[in-house]
Structure formats: C-alpha cells, structure tokens
Amino acid sequence: MFLRRTIPIFIVGFFGAFTLFGWFIENESIKAFINDDATQWYDIIASFAIFLGALNLLKLQSLKVLKRQSGWQYSLIAILSFLYVFVIGFFMRGAFFVEISSIPSNPDPMINLVNETTALELNSSYFVDVNNENPFRIEVPFYTDSSADDFVAQLASLGVNSAVVPTPWGAHIQTSGGLFKWMFDNIFTPLSATMFALLAFFVASASYRAFKARNFEATLLLLAGIIIMIGRVPVGSLISSWFVMYLTVLGVGVVLSGLVRDRRIIFGWVLFGLLFVTILGMQMGWPIDKPTMFFLPALQEWIYMVPNVAGARAIMIGIGLGIIITSLRYIFGLEKSYIGDQ
Amino acid sequence: MNKQTLQNQLVLIGIVLLTLLISRFEFFNSERSFMFAILLLIIYILFQEVSNVKKNPDSIFLRTIPGLKAVEEAVGRSTEMGRPILYVPGIMDMNEVETVAGVIILGHVANMTAQYETSLDVPVSRSIVMQAAREACKESYLRQGRPELFNDDMVHYVTDEQFAYAAGVNGIMQRSKPAACMYMGKFYAESLLFAETGNGIGAIQIAGTASQAQIPFFVTACDYTLMGEEYFAASAYLSEKPELIGGVKAQDTFKIFLIFLIGLGFLARMLFDLDILSFNLVELIG
Amino acid sequence: MEKLENIILKLGSIDRRIIFLIIGLAVLIPLLRPVDLPIRPGPSSQQVYDAIDSIPDNSKVLISFDYGPSTRPEIHPMTLGVMRQLLDQNRGHKIYVTCLWPDGLYMAKDALKTINKEYTLEKYEDYVLLGFRPGYEAVIKGLENNLRAVYTVDADLTSIDDIPMMEGINSLEDFDFIFSGSAGYPGSLEWVLYGPTTVPLSSGTTSIQVNEVLPYVQSGQLKGILAGMPGAAEYEALVGKKGIATSGMAAQSYGHIVIILFIILGNLAYFIKERRERKY
Questions:
Q1: Would you say residue B71 has pLDDT above 80?
Q2: pTM here?
Q3: Helix ranges restricted to H, A168-308
Q4: Structural domain boundaries in chain A
Q5: In chain A, which residues have their Cβ closer than 8 Å to the Cβ of B229?
Q6: Does any CB of chain C come closer than 8 Å to the CB of residue A306?
Q7: Cβ atoms within 10 Å of B197's Cβ, excluding its own
C-alpha cells in the first residue's frame, strides 16, 4: 500500500505544489526546473514508455495473425509497416550522396550517365569549378551504399573521381530524396491528408442530420450556421445585401403568419417591407455590400467576433476553472482515482 | 454575523496581508501578487467546501447530468446486446488534466462492466495512458470481485499519431460494432471522425471533453455530451464522494466570485475610460 | 403537391453515401476545372498583413511550423505567404524557422524549397532552419530563457555559433516578430501563453481552432489571425500571389453550398413529416 498508494500520492503532491508555487518564486534554479527540467523529465519518461506501447501493439497484431482471426491481413500489414519504418529509421541511412571531385576533359559521357541515373538535367556548366577542394555534390541521394558504390564505379570507368558521402545519422530522416523522406512524402502524408479529408464528408452528413429547426435555439443555430458557411467563402461576397434584405422581409412574413391570424397584417407587412427595401435600394444605387448588416461576409464577421467569441470566452473560463479545481484536487490528494484508488 | 462569515472575512484579510507581506521579499515575483492571492483564495474555498460537504453531505444538490446518467444505461444496453463497450480516453498524454479525468471516469465505467460482465475495449494513443488506464480497470475489476474478467489487452496501444489512431479506432468500431462508444478526454480534429463512425454503426455515444473546439462536433453527432465543467464534475458525480462534490461546489462558488470580478472590472474600466475614475483596475490585475 | 412532398420526404432521408458522393463531386469538379472567385480580405487577415508590414527594416522574424501533412493545405499557404510578404518588401528581413511538431520540419523544408525557387535565398544569410525540438511548450519557455541552450545546432547540424545570422539572438525577445502556423497542440495557444509579451505575435490556424484563438486576437495578444483556408486565400490576395488556398476556395464554396442545400432539404422533409404526424 505504501509503495502503490502513499508514494505516488506524495510524488504528485510534492511536484504539483512545487511547480504551482514555484511560478511565484524568482529563483533561477527553480525557474529552470519548472520551465525546462520538469517537462524534459516527462518527455524522457514518455519516450521510454513508447517501447511498452510498441511491444503491446506488436504482440496483439502478431496474435491476430497467428490465430488467423478476422482481419488478420490488416494486422500483417500493420506489423510489416511497423518493421519497415523501424528499420529505415534506425538501421538504414537511406540517403547516400555522391560527390564528384574531378572530371575528364570530355565530361559529356559522365553528364549523360548522371542525368540518366538521377533524372536531373545537368550540363557542363555545373562542373566548371570542380576540384578536390570544391567537389560537386549530386543532390539526388541513393537509398543504399551499395547502389551508390556501383554508381561511383560506373563514374570511375568514365575517368571520374568521386566518393560516396553518407548522410549523418539523425539528419537521414529529413534528407530530401532519402528513403525515410520518400516514405513520409509518398505514404504517410497522403494517408494523413486522406483521414483529415474525411472530415469534409462527415461534416456534411452530421450537418444534414443535426441541423433541424426543432425549436427556437435550433433555428437560431441553423440560421447562424448558414450565414457563416456562406459568408466565409467567396460566394458570400457575390450575394447582394439587398437579396438578403428581401429574404429577411419574407422570412419575417413567414414567422408572422404563425403568430397573427389576420392575413391582411401579414400581407401588409410583406408589401411594406418589399416596397421599403426597393425604394431604399433605388435611393442608394443598389451597392452590393450596403447596408453592411445584411452583407453576408460582414454579418458573418460580426457573428464570429461578437456572440461566438463571447460564448467561447465563457466556456473557456468554465473549462479553466474546472482544470484549476481538478488539478488542486490531485495535488492535495483529495482525488486518488487516477492510481486506481476509488 | 455568523461564525462562518466571520471566518471567511478573517481568511480574506489574512490572504491579503500574507500577499502583501510576501511580496516584499526579493525571492517573490511581486508582479504576480494578485494571482497569488487568487490562488490562495481558491485553495481556501476548495477546502472550506469539502469540509462543509463532509459535515453535511445532503446540503449539496448536484443537478442531473444526462450524459452521466446515460453511462449506466449504455453499459446495460451493451450487456443486453452482447456487444462490447468502446472507451476512448482522448489522444493526449497523462500530462493533460482532461486525460487524467478520462482515466478516472474509465475506472467508474470499468466498475459497471465488471458488474454486468460486459466486455470493455480501450484503445489508447499513449503508452503512459495505457499503463494508467490498465491500473484503473484492474482496480475496478478487483473491487467488484471479478479479477478473472480483467485482461491486460482490454487496454491496448494503437499509435501516437493522431489520424492513424483515428483510423485504427474507426476500424475497431466497424469490425467489432460496439453497442456503446464513450469518448472522454482531450480530442482534436479526429473527434468528428469517431462520432460519425459511431453514429454509422448505431452505437449509443457519450462524449465528454473540455476541448472547446470539439464540443460542437460531439454535441451534433453524439447522444450525450459532457461539456467543459460537466466533464470535470463527472468523477464527483459518479463517485458521490464528499471531497469531490465539495470540489464542484468550490468551482461554482469561485465562478460567482469571478462573475462579480468581471462586473466590477467592467464598471471600473468604463468609469476610468469616461474619466470619472482615475484608478485603473486592469493595471492592478496586470 | 403531395407527390412533391413525397419526393422531398425521400430526399430528406437519403443514404449518407449519396451525400458523400455529391460532396465529393462538388469539391472535386472545381479543383479539376478551376473557377475564379473574388477573394475579399477580411479584417483579421488584414490585421496580420498590416502587422507584418509595420515591422521595422532588417527585422528578425521567427516563423514556427506547428503543423503536419494532414493540415498542410490550410496552413502551408499561410507560411508561404508570410515568407513572400517578408521577402517581397526587400527590406532586409531575416527569416528564422523553428518547428514545435516533428512533421513541421518537413513542412518547413518544403516551404523553404518553394521559396528558394522564387527568391534565390542564401542559407545562413537570409534564412536559417533551426529545426524541431521535442518538449511542446517547454521549447517555447526554453527559447524565451536561452535559445542557444535549446538550439546548439540547426537542422543541418551546423553549430549555431558559426551562423552569422544568429549573432545577437539569445532568446525570443531578440526577434522582432513571431508567426505561428498552427494546427493544434502545441501551437498558437502555447505561443500566446508562454511566448514573450514584448514581441508582436501573429498566427494562422485551422478553421476548427479559430474559435479558441479569437479571444486572444480581441485582447490584442495576437495581431490578427488567418482563419483556415479562407484566411489563407485572403492573405494570398493581400500578398498578391495566388496559390493553393485561392484555388481551393471554389471547391470550399461549392462544398458549403451543397451542405446548405442538404440542410434545407432535410428541414423541409422534417417540417412535412411533422405536419403529417400532427394531422394524424
């Protein structure tokens, strides 16, 4: 109990209180601990903890493959992908450059070979000042040192002095043209972008399902949503504010028809409204963006900046308070459920 | 004037005096004096409310939070249908308060699944969360006297990468078709991916997050959503422990104080801008 | 009339896969057959442009790439636009690039490659790529205290002390402007919370994140914001160089219109259904 309960609670309390009250203290060591060391300790722990997760992942996926459970083929792909990235990240540089230090008097065969092998479009002007102190580096790396060596041998047969320059470990994962970067650009990036792009479809289906004018608040949400969606994109600035004014008059007429029985009042309102807008428009010359309050981009901006930010602030304050009280509960040991002590 | 009010006033005076005293020392960052006083006030309010609730547990009324009431209903539904419960504790690590709160709620959910013998699937995005969530589930199953139903692989790691995790969890949803999906923690853009996929498989969905930008997506697509403070109050609500309920009361008490401060600040600033007052409250706050 | 109502009712409960298909076409067609739509810069984007415009000559500008490939279409045009605005002005600005996301390093390299084709920059004279450091907001705090402790070498493993541009740069306070292209955590919020208060800060974020960041724009802690792809397109219009954000606006416009049409259809079906149920 002492090891599993008391010590963890003490550690949380001590470091929590230390970090919290340390913010008020003007001491370089304390500030350095709070600003740098504490987070770095956490990063180091999390980095080592990744092994636990990775091993768990491999174990579960391997069991699925071995037992031929439903979807085992996906598990096989997961394991192979994991191993692929692990190997090219840790064990293969994947980026070997070739530097040319001297060229023969007739460089054309060499240039043709380089262009054919690397798909570059070099010419003799690139090799004018090539010498031992100023070698020319072919900016397309080879994935393996053996392929780079082969290329160097081919160049040597043409009378070219060249050498293989491996990319340093660490830099190899970010080297353009290297194996890891190739994987990042051609596999990881499209997959990530695809998953993010799914949001467009899901937003459409969620909006279609959820934006129903069931009551006043839902109607308000619906209208605000439509105004923001139209006003935010260029199409919104093509819609004249006068069109919106006419729509507003008609909309108010529809609402009135549910509240007032006398049709003459409704007809009168609609007629008056339409006439008023028409006369006003003729007076003002029908500018597309005036009156501003009916111009969708301006209306959208107002909704964004005023009621939206007000609501956002209120929620942020509430969330902030929640975080403060919850954190204090952990620090002072009032809540211990995170270590399983309910 | 009753004893409590007198005590409160004395403590307030004490906080102000302590702050003034401590700000004279060189080691103290006097620019942050106001925040220091506020912090002490919050701590006092917290302990005061906890003590009040412990003395008189029935004095506090916690309004019904439909999302939390629905947790047991969701577990029951899964048991009847013989399908698992999917619990997603967010995509961030244990350094986020929301994730810790999510793990705590998982403990309560695991209590119910142990009781009803429903299978629980918890895919996680971080290794440390995996360990913490396992501990929470294990303790719950032990407490319910059903340790044999607990399996380490109930809580399993998927990946750290946001959209890869979303793809993995969506795949789990599509294949195992859980009857209930619970999303409790810190989320980013993948929230709608989870919620819509869950909606597509016909699961009952309960979400809880303090990620402000994701609340609208959860509200739209889930059956129940715990928003912001409700989410942090969840552990108090589910456990019904006085020290936790006192925390919720403290939160509300301090919120009233903040509303008062905002009103005061608004008034003071307006009077300052109108040249009626020469004192600038905003400068004092810093 | 009843026939029409029945059609609307049917359309009001279509399979979501049909919705996905129509949305897909609405977004794909304008990308394949580009449509030129007028872009009207909003106040937030204008504020960012003006803030960068108003920095003194020979300023040191830090650009933080805090996004990855999934949000690249939204944020990449913003960071490119900022670099173009700085370089177009020919006022001797220097660009320093940092990354709080590991993927941000690749985004930064791609952006610098693109900019290099347009402006022929001299490495370590016009720009320096400091690279990625793990630690989330601790990196910002570390940069504020002592930049040279966080970055001893740049992304190409060259010692910071050997880079002429890095002379006199010891902390974030030594920069004249900071811009964060942010897609989540860590990003704009962390720069506001932990960054220097004396250096003007601006940001470009995904549309989802804008809500969280707007209060800081209103309080002046952020000098404007580029809000999602529309913000990026507005900024491209201000800088005067159209890019993928502008070309994406037609797709976004059509997508929004289709969503609104579906919403209207859904509501019509809902009202008809309600009315019929009330009758019976």
A1: yes
A2: 0.89
A3: 179-183, 189-210, 216-231, 241-259, 263-284, 296-303
A4: 2-88, 92-209
A5: 318-319, 321-322
A6: no
A7: 22
